[in-house]
């Protein structure tokens, strides 16, 4: 299990980064207030 955790975590980070990157390219950047509320 411990051997698979890093690869799964890395894959999740790559997928999340791809989704965020695609979303930023497809949608205009939100105002700073929206970014703070999202977090």
How many strand elements?
A: 0
Helix-strand string = HH
Number of domains: 1
Overall pLDDT, averaged? 73
DSSP strand content:
under 5%
Helix content percent band: over 70%
Biggest sheet features: none
In angstroms, what is the radius of gyration?
14 Å
Work out the helix count: 2
Structural class: mainly alpha
Distance between the termini: 30 Å
Unreliable residue runs: none
What's the overall geometry? Answer: elongated
Structure description:
The longest helix has 23 residues, at 4-26. The protein has one domain. With 39 residues, it is an all-alpha fold. The protein has helices spanning 4-26, 32-38. The N and C termini lie far apart (30 Å). It is elongated, with a radius of gyration of 14 Å. It has 2 helices and no strands. 0% of the residues are buried.
List the keywords.
single chain; about 40 residues; mainly alpha; 2 helices; Amino_acid_transport_2
Would you kindly provide a brief summary of this structure?
It holds the Pfam family Trp_Tyr_perm. By secondary structure, the chain is mostly helical.
């Amino acid at each position: 299990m411990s051997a698979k955790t890093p690869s799964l975590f890395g894959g999740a980070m790559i997928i999340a980064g791809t989704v965020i990157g695609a979303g930023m390219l497809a949608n205009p950047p939100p105002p700073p207030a929206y970014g703070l509320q999202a977090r």
